Amino acid sequence: MWSGKYKAFLNDENGAVTVDFVVLTSAIVGIAMALVLVIYGGVNSGTANINTGISDSLSDSANLAATIASGQ
């Protein structure tokens, strides 16, 4: 009686598919998170450089406008 149910339980592969799906999904999520961290560093650096460039351009424009207004 028990041996038939035990053999059927051991031969059942439905749970293995679920485990495979969970492992593959977690691997994909982990790789995506690592990729976001790598991209974030570059984007953050790029936006800081753009911010610095705009700030410098605005201050140069203000200095030029002040020079023109003073007539020098």
Question: In words, what does this structure look like?
Answer:
The chain is an all-alpha fold. The protein has one domain (15-70). The chain is 93% helix and 0% strand. The chain is built from two helices and no strands. The protein has helices spanning 2-11, 14-70. The longest helix has 57 residues, at 14-70. The protein is rod-shaped, with a radius of gyration of 31 Å. The model has no long low-confidence stretch (mean pLDDT 84).
Structural features:
72 residues; 0% strand; 2 helices; mainly alpha
Rg from alpha-carbon coordinates: 31 Å
Our measurement of the CA-to-CA distance between the termini, rounded to an integer number of angstroms, reads 105 Å
What count of helical segments does DSSP give? Answer: 2
Helix content: over 70%
Biggest sheet: strands, sense, closure?
none
| Low-confidence spans | none
Q: How many beta-strand runs? A: 0
Strand content: under 5%
Compile the SSE list and pairings.
Blueprint: H1 2-11, H2 14-70
